[in-house]
Specification:
- Belongs to the universal ribosomal protein uL5 family.
- The protein is α+β, with helices and mostly antiparallel strands and about 250 residues long.
- The protein has a domain at about 70-235: 50s Ribosomal Protein L5, Chain: A, CATH 3.30.1440.10.
- It is built from four helices and five strands; from the N terminus they run αβαββαββα.
- It has a five-stranded antiparallel β-sheet with strand order 2-3-1-5-4.
- The longest helix is centred in the first third of the chain and has 18 residues, at about 70-85.
Length: about 250
């Protein structure tokens, strides 16, 4: 007779672990973060440097500084123009809309590196990256083809416009040799004024030792004036050093 098979032993059930009472649970603040056992609040950037502390929640950021020339316009120039031209609404007062600085680089036709130097100098003067200007049509006498880069330009608005205007009239123009003021005949009939500068080294931002070639530039002040009389009075009150008319 075959041996009777022994009955299989029943698997013993594992005792269930008793749940710990809630009172013994650790608070969340004492829980350790992964990777080194540091709390989340003490996490650092790679390389062992601490992350810079940001502004506190609910703390207001300091207000941006208003350019002094804009403040001068709002406090003195605007009331004076309203009285001079008898405007009824402050929005009728002509304002300075933008300043366009254009630098032509004819040498770029033979050496493109001259254009790179002009772009770097104009960016240093204005604090804004210039845009490259290209020829609109071909001119055989100048060996110029359509689309070739021939200069660079910057358009300034807002605070940068006021800061550039301030540095121009108070720092750069007085450094011109035998400076006696800027001419008043360069208005275009619509209140816009264009000023020609023959040397870029009058700006203190330019290092004379690193200048490859002396270049000039055209600076156009675009206003919202309707005629030259309003535009001239606006720039005069904003301290533009116009040349006195000779009797």
């Amino acid at each position: 007779m075959a041996d009777e098979k022994e009955p299989k032993e029943k698997k013993q059930a594992k005792p269930k672990l008793e749940a710990k009472p809630k009172g013994d649970a650790k608070p969340k603040g004492e829980a350790k973060a992964k990777g080194g056992g540091k709390a989340k609040g003490d996490s650092r950037r790679k390389g062992g440097k601490e992350a810079p502390a940001g502004p506190a929640i609910g703390e207001a950021e300091p207000p941006a500084r208003i350019p002094r020339l804009r403040e001068h316009f709002e406090k003195r120039v605007l009331p004076e123009l309203m009285k001079r031209f008898q405007y009824r609404n402050p929005m009728q007062v002509p304002r300075l809309k933008k300043i366009v600085v254009n630098m032509g680089v004819g040498d770029a036709l033979q050496n493109i590196k001259m254009l790179d130097a002009a772009v770097a100098e104009l960016a240093t003067i204005t604090g804004q990256k210039p845009s490259i200007r290209k020829a609109k049509k071909s001119i055989a006498n100048f060996k110029l083809r359509e689309g070739q880069p021939i200069g660079c330009m910057v358009t300034l608005r807002g605070p940068r416009m006021y800061e550039f205007y301030d540095r121009l009239i108070n720092v750069a123009l007085p450094r011109i040799r035998d400076f006696r003021g800027v001419p008043m005949k360069s208005f275009d009939g619509q209140g816009n004024y264009t000023l020609g500068i023959t040397e870029q080294i009058i700006f203190p931002e330019i290092n004379y030792d690193k200048v490859e070639k002396i270049r000039g530039m055209d600076i156009t002040f675009v206003t919202s004036a309707e005629n030259d009389e309003e535009g001239q009075e606006l720039l005069r009150l904003m301290n533009m050093p116009f040349r006195l008319r000779q009797a």
